[in-house]
């Protein structure tokens, strides 16, 4: 399931279906394909949908009128609108970024490539840079439109980088999250790390951590932390943003604050929201956090005050007019494939681990 929000609409996607909620009315449509990603344009006029198999659809909001359909050459993992609201960037699973223009039939132009699965893409607000993240721990900052010219890399994550977005109160900086359990803040022009949040320090359930490590270990994958699954952020004031994160298998949403003052960065855990089911998606819009529950087909809305407290909650039922089955989120297999095996042979990995542990016991 996917979620997108602006001032006038709340859009949820599940399977083939999209529910566009506006002015207390639901508009549910069948797109004809399984929806894997969804995004609203910067001017709030268009909704972009990524479908499986290999299709990109663009709708006019809030009426949900189909404006354009593109057939993609390969399966894709992420879409983003550009600063120009007719421009769409598609990150595909072979590592390429493709450009589409809803005002033109000449689309699907390759802009750049990675040697790894692309997981996210973002264009800077001044249109000068295209930022991409991949399975191989890298964040690449390329000049735009001359994307063959690389400005810099933001390097420091130890596992896949699944989310990137600009720091809401100061877009000179970039937020990222990873399978290594960290949230990092970068000066992306220089490629410098400015702040680092180790979410494992805020997890109190050691049993969940050990269970995940054992599951991954049985497949020859060595991990140190639970991976971050979702990330979203919102401006709190002129110096501070709130960051919401979900961590694999933990039924809590972690709320952090990140303050920038005189080029210094201060982060802290300021709240944890207990939830009944692990969310399918989360998104901040202004100071409201929208949490999509695919088990109950509803959205929980948490409104924050400027002192970082939750001042109200609301529940919006989605897909009421359709007989859409409830389901429980099990993202283990989806997460597992993003981790890289350090060894091709699981038995070799286990033997080396035993020798290493044996050596540690002797010392």
Overall body shape: globular
Query: At CATH's second level, what is the architecture?
Result: 7 Propeller
Determine Rg (CA atoms, Å). 21 Å
Number of strands: 28
Count of helical regions: 3
The CATH homologous superfamily: YVTN repeat-like/Quinoprotein amine dehydrogenase
Q: How many structural domains? A: 1
Strand content is over 45%
Major sheet attributes: 4 strands, antiparallel
Structural class: mainly beta
Classify the helix fraction into a percent range. under 10%
CATH class categorisation: Mainly Beta
Q: Give the CA-CA distance, first to last residue.
A: 49 Å
Strand order, largest beta sheet = 1-2-3-4
Looking at the structure, the CATH topology is: Methylamine Dehydrogenase, Chain H
Return residue spans where pLDDT drops below 50 for at least 5 consecutive residues: none
Description:
- This protein is mainly β and 363 residues long.
- Helices cover 9% and strands 50% of the residues.
- It has a 4-stranded antiparallel β-sheet with strand order 1-2-3-4, with no helix packed on it. A 4-stranded antiparallel β-sheet has the order 5-6-7-8, with no helix packed on it. A 4-stranded antiparallel β-sheet has the order 9-10-11-12, with no helix packed on it.
- The longest helix is centred in the C-terminal third of the chain and has 17 residues, at 346-362.
- The protein has one domain (2-358): Methylamine Dehydrogenase, Chain H (7 Propeller), CATH 2.130.10.10.
């Amino acid at each position: 399931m996917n979620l997108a929000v602006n001032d006038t609409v709340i859009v949820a996607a599940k399977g083939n279906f999209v529910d566009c909620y506006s002015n207390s009315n639901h508009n549910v449509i069948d797109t004809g394909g399984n929806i894997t990603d969804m995004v609203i344009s910067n001017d709030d006029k268009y909704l972009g949908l990524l479908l499986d198999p290999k299709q990109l659809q663009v709708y006019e909001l809030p009426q949900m009128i189909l404006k354009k359909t593109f057939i993609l050459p390969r399966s894709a993992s992420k879409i983003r609108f550009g600063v120009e609201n007719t421009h769409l960037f598609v990150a595909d699973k072979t590592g390429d970024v493709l450009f589409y223009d809803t005002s033109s039939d000449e689309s699907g132009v390759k802009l750049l490539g990675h040697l790894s699965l692309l997981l996210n893409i973002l264009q800077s607000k001044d249109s000068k840079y295209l930022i991409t993240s991949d399975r191989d721990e890298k964040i690449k900052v390329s000049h735009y439109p001359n994307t063959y010219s690389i400005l810099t890399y933001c390097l420091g994550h130890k596992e896949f980088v699944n989310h990137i977005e600009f720091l809401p109160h100061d877009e000179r900086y970039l937020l990222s999250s990873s399978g290594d359990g960290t949230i990092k803040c970068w000066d992306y022009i220089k490629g410098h790390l400015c702040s680092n949040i180790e979410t494992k320090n805020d997890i109190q359930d050691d049993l969940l951590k050990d269970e995940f490590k054992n599951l991954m270990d049985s497949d020859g994958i060595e991990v140190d932390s639970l991976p971050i699954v979702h990330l979203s952020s919102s401006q709190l004031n002129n110096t501070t943003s709130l960051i919401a994160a979900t961590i694999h298998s933990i039924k809590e949403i972690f709320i952090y604050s990140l303050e920038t003052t005189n080029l210094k960065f201060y982060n802290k855990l300021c709240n944890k929201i207990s939830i009944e089911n692990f969310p399918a998606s989360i998104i901040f819009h202004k100071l409201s956090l929208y949490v999509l529950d695919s088990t109950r087909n509803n959205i929980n809305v948490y409104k924050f005050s400027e002192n970082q407290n939750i001042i109200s909650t609301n529940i919006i039922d989605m897909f009421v007019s359709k007989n859409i089955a409830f389901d429980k989120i099990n993202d283990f297999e989806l997460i597992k494939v993003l981790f890289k095996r350090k060894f091709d042979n699981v038995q070799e990995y286990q033997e080396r681990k035993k020798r290493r542990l044996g050596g540690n016991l002797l010392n």
